[in-house]
Amino acid sequence: MIGAAFFTNGPVQVALIIGGGAALVSAVVGVFTVLRGQSFAGHALADISSAGGSAALLFGIRPLAGFLAMAALGAGGMEAIGARQIRERDLVTGIVLGAGLGVTALLLYLDMTTTSASGAANTVMFGSMFAIAPATIPLALGVGLLALAMTAALYRPLLLIAIDPDLAAIRGIDPRLIGLAHLLVLAIAVALSAMTIGAILSTALLIGPAAASLRLATRPGTAILIAVAIGLSATWGGIALAYDSFYWTPGHGWPVSVFVVMIVLAAYLAAGPLGSALARRRMARS
Amino acid sequence: MFSGFMINTWIAASIVAATAGLVGFFVVVRGASFAAHALPLSTFPGAAAAAWLGINEIAGLVAFAGLGVIGIDALSRRGRPEVATALTLVMLLGLGTLFLSRTTTYAQEVYGLLFGQVLGIGAADIAPIALVSAAAAGSVLLLFRPLLLSAVSRDLAQARGAAPARTDLAFLVILAMASAVALPVVGALLVFSLMVGPAAAARNLTDRAGLAIALSVALSLLTVWAAIALSYLTNWPVGFFVGVFGALAYGLGRAALHLRRPRRAMA
Q1: Do A101 and B79 count as a contact with CB atoms less than 8 A apart?
Q2: Interface pTM, i.e. ipTM
Q3: Which residues of B111-122 are buried (b: 16+ CB within 10 A; e: fewer)?
Q4: pTM for this model (two decimals)
């Protein structure tokens, strides 16, 4: 079904490279995000980044730069208003998210009325995997590497705060500093995947692989590796299936994000029984 | 602004705003912002499916809101609730993307469904909107005590014989109904802003539940009326005004709290 044309096709190559980078960073950051119970913040940052994506269309700058700038701004905003209690934190996240989406609404309206981008809402909210400019690759890989390097440098404190905040405090780890670092890495991850599979669907790559891997692995390092494997298979598999779907229904193919979401969900559902079976075997051996 | 074709919008908007203000109070006290954001967004493909199958839009929305509730409930039985919410959201949105790619004529309406439109309501929509809203509001009043009690203390609710898990599910259903009817006016992405903003402001203004609900409903009505009027005049999307007013209301509420109880607010 997939011939040599798949790998020599320009837009497909760009999608494979940037999509793979987005999946990799999202999976790594996702593990910390799920462990800390920050799924809503991750989803909210992705939604807020859509304001940047729509501003980029309006002002003719590179979409990734727009997504990144707005996600970072959102992260800063959430940290600035900051709240200790989880309930209050969700409320603040919601308020910042509402304001950000309001701005997106206006920018998209201006996109559609002042420029010729009539499909702006679709592009920004549901992604444009096959329409990424090749010139975006260096910036995408650069910020992706930056996010991975930050995560590697802060690996232990990030993990400790996620698993046991009290112990982290005793060890002298500053929760606000680590929290801000986590939000910034999160912002990079969601900006990358917002550009590829869309602002409102990037949550699939962030939460899905991580949640599935945490059902299987008992060690954080293993969890990260499994999450990366799931994320990459979902993205690359999704690209291959979307490419192939042009032949299923002549005229128009199926969206990449549909396949990515389906593969991620299948992995999460399969991880449940598989995880219990693994746990039983571990119990039997010990 | 009040001519014939706008009357439907004003009536529908007032109904959904009052319901959102009432339900929103419980969203805030129960800390359910993520579910309140995820359910309307999961409901959005319902409109695409309805257009595709040629059935009533409100019926499609209510059906997908139901799927959202089932998804969140089923997935959170065996995992973290916020992961369940996130995965249900992307699952239904993925379906929505698929529906949208099937119908080309529908693409123009995506924007209106996501961010709201003043002309999205026809005369035939008023009756179902009123019916579903009444069901949502009636359920809130019927379950008033358990909803509030399990928000304050799950142990206490359990001790009183009210099963918190069942109350959680009932609340999701109420939230789904309120989301489905608010969606065509305010837009899928900003329905939750209408629920969270006014209610959060009201909670900061008073400690009494009854008064807070009344304030929340009043602020929600004001937000929607102002948003529709401004949207009509400027042609800008309803969602923009709802999102910004929601944040503004919350900010004013925080400021009022600061003035009212300077010492406790500092702590």
Answers
A1: no
A2: 0.86
A3: bbbbbbbbebbe
A4: 0.87
